[in-house]
Amino acid sequence: MKEVMEEAVLLFLLLVIYTPDAQGTRYSPPGKPELTRCRSPEKETFTCWWKPGSDGGLPTTHALYYRKENSDTIYECSDYHTAGENSCFFNKNDTSIWVNYNITVVASNALGSTFSDPVDIDVVYIVKPNPPEKVTVTVMELKEWPFLRVSWEPPHKADTRSGWITLIYELRVKLEGDDEWEMHLAGQQKLFNIFSLRSGGTYHVQVRCKPDHGFWSEWSSTSHIEIPDYLHREKSMWILIAVFSAFIFLILTWSLHMSSHRSLKHCILPPVPGPKIKGFDKQLLKNGKSEDLLRVLVVSDFPPTTPSNYEDMLVEYLEVYVPQEQEVLLEESKDLHDSCLKFEGSTSDNDSGRVSCDSHTLLMDKCGEAKEEGRQTDQEDSTTEAEAQGQQKDWDQDTLMYANGDILSPEKSSGRVKTWPSVFSPLPQYTLSLPDQTSSLEMAKQHCYSDSLFCPGSTSSYLTHLGNNDNETLGPGSWEICLSNRQPYSHIPQMQTCQQVRSHSDVNISTIARKQEPAGLPLPFFRPTAYVEVQRFDEEDMVVLQSIVSDHGFHEGFPQMLQQEDYSKVKGVDSNNMLLLQTEAMKEDGDGTTPHKPTAHIHTVVSTQDEMAQPASGYVDTATIFTLPTY
Amino acid sequence: MDRVVILLSVLCLGVSSQPITDSQYLFSIAVSRVQNLHLLAQRLFSNFESTLQTDDQHQLNKIFLQDFCNSDYIISPIDKHETQRSSVLKLLSISYRLVESWEFSSRSLTGGSALRNQISPRLSELKTGIQMLITANQDGAEMFPDSTALQLAPYGNFYQSLGDDELLRRNYELLACFKKDMHKVETYLTVAKCRFSPEMNCTL
Question: Where is the signal peptide (chain A) (predicted)?
Answer without folding.
Answer: 1-24
